[in-house]
Amino acid sequence: MLKVGITGGIGVGKSVVSRMFALLGVPVYDSDARAKWLMRHDEALRQELIGAFGHETFTETGDINRPFLATLVFNNLERLEQLNSLVHPHVGNDFANWAASYADTPYVLKEAALMYESDAWKQMDQIITVYAPLDVRIKRLLQRDPHRTEADIKAIISKQLSEEERMSRADHILYNDGKQLLIPQVLKLHAQLSAAPASAK
């Protein structure tokens, strides 16, 4: 069974592509959703977060205090790295356990925005990068998140790995630029990955 990572910057359409693979019957692990779940339910991780950031990390009902954490880490690289260093190992272990339950599947997908920053790529056999040009990404994000300004979006993108670096490190690139049809690209890659031997790198 191949472990295939899927990544790309904000607004490129990673989740859309992941849903396409899921419709083809491919098991898909959503790193962001699982990270949020683990922060809420994994007691060891909760205690690590409280130890690092204080009890204000969680609300009185036990939910993640997202505004507090966002304020803490958005413009503080050291605090952001500290948060990621606590969460990512738990996500990595969770993914390994999850993937083990699909041993008879040709391949599984792990969707992760921080594939390289979190070292999640080291668990993968192959990496897919979803690409879209900057202007297309900004337009999509303004439509999806009307409360954000173009300056907000550019600030987020500036903190992410460059598309050039992602593309140079990827085994496969899917172009979601509005010019090339996406579904045929996904179908072709699905056929390729389904036929690939588990040892392929």
From TrEMBL:
| Gene Ontology molecular-function annotations | kinase activity
List the subcellular locations: Cytoplasm
In short, the EC number is 2.7.1.24
Which controlled-vocabulary keywords does the entry list?
A: ATP-binding, Coenzyme A biosynthesis, Cytoplasm, Kinase, Nucleotide-binding, Transferase
InterPro entries in the record: Depp_CoAkinase, P-loop_NTPase
Give the EC class as a word.
transferase
**UniProt-listed Pfam families:** CoaE (PF01121)
Named in its record, the pathway it takes part in is:
Cofactor biosynthesis; coenzyme A biosynthesis; CoA from (R)-pantothenate: step 5/5
Binding sites annotated in the UniProt record for ATP: 11-16
Question: What is catalyzed by this enzyme?
Answer: 3'-dephospho-CoA + ATP = ADP + CoA + H(+)
Nucleotide-binding: present as a keyword of the record? yes
Q: What does this protein do?
A: Catalyzes the phosphorylation of the 3'-hydroxyl group of dephosphocoenzyme A to form coenzyme A.
Q: Which family does it belong to?
A: Belongs to the CoaE family.
PANTHER family this protein is in? BIFUNCTIONAL COENZYME A SYNTHASE-RELATED, DEPHOSPHO-COA KINASE-RELATED
Q: What is this protein called?
A: Dephospho-CoA kinase
List the source organism: Pontibacter saemangeumensis
